[in-house]
Automatic annotation (TrEMBL):
Gene3D superfamilies: 2.30.30.90. This is Ferrous iron transport protein A. Residues 2-74 form the Ferrous iron transporter FeoA-like domain. SUPFAM superfamilies: C-terminal domain of transcriptional repressors. Pfam families: FeoA. PANTHER family: FEOA FAMILY PROTEIN (PTHR43151), SSR2333 PROTEIN (PTHR43151:SF1). The keyword Iron applies. It comes from Ammonifex thiophilus. It comes from the Bacteria. InterPro entries: Fe-transptr_FeoA-like, FeoA-like, FeoA_core_dom, Transcriptional_repressor_C. Keywords: Iron. GO terms for molecular function: transition metal ion binding.
Amino acid sequence: MFPLTASLPGARVRILQILGGRGMQQRLWHMGLRPGTELRVIANAGGGPVLVAANGETRFGLGWGMAQRILVEEVREAAAHE
């Protein structure tokens, strides 16, 4: 388990836990970002916004602080198709 900010562009990850407060968790929940959601990292320049795609091609730009509090795991390609 590692923060979303540690993910490289092109990586596929699954949200495991969100460490933010109630407001942040609700904001992400309404965006469809919750534990179990799979993401594809589109851009992560380090220190700036992290651009991800969820549920196909819905794209979100997450600020560095918010992305730092989203804990994820890598999704292996074989596991993604099972």
